[in-house]
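anyone seen this seq b4? input:
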Amino acid sequence: MTTASRTTTSTATGGTTVTTTGDAPRAADPIRARAADPPTGRTASTGSRILNVVRLQFVNRYTFLWIPLIIIVSAVILSLAIYWMIGSDSPMYGGGGQAPLWYYLVAGIQAMSLTFPFSQAMSLTRREFFLGTVLAAAISAVVLAAFYVLLGLLEQATSGYGINGYIVYLPWVWESGWVGTAAVVAALTMFFFLTGFWFATIYRRAGTIAVTLATVGLAVVLLAAIFVITRMEAWMSVLEFFTTLGPLGLAGILGGLAVVVGTASWVTLRRSMH
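predicted toks r here
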């Protein structure tokens, strides 16, 4: 570090001249001196800031990990109790395995409404927040899909827990093996999560009325589709379409819908004012 030094010399007329070297000018103007200092650290890259968002989302592990696992374990226990009370020599299939997938609607809402203000306080951009949140959801979806696969393999190995009761191992879903099952579960998880995230973004952008109108609009579209299929008596054709589509094809459609909803979420988030 350079230190200031001062030299005093006499002139021919009897006066003195003071010469200052070193950091004295910096001391005279400390604000300018601090501005001229070189940066002491490197600015975090976009990738590391996105990972910071992932860590922020996983601060509360219950949202993305423990609650989905608790829901699926509870669904298995309740389904087995029902199967045991019914009793049957033929295989029994239930829909309890879908319970944690619906929860991701709530997880998407929480990921936006509870975490977004903190990300802004951390000076994270909306793009970094969005990408980090989607990455956190994708990690959770992969973990949930792996758990489904392991549970399905267990049901196969034990012939439905010894009572012919199946919660996760559904023949059509397992038609393409564990790969197709994992793809369907992961795609459904991301679709539900991004749908909840989008509705939370709409609420932040335009308030309760906009969310209500969006919900009513989606309900109208769904009802119109059901009406058209019913009037055309095309339900058998629809079922045949999904049957021939297979699990991987269904995962592809769900993945495409997730991309559409995710894009809508990003556009809405970019235009959000607060």
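DSSP finds eleven helices and four strands in the chain. The radius of gyration is 30 Å. kinda curious what u guys think
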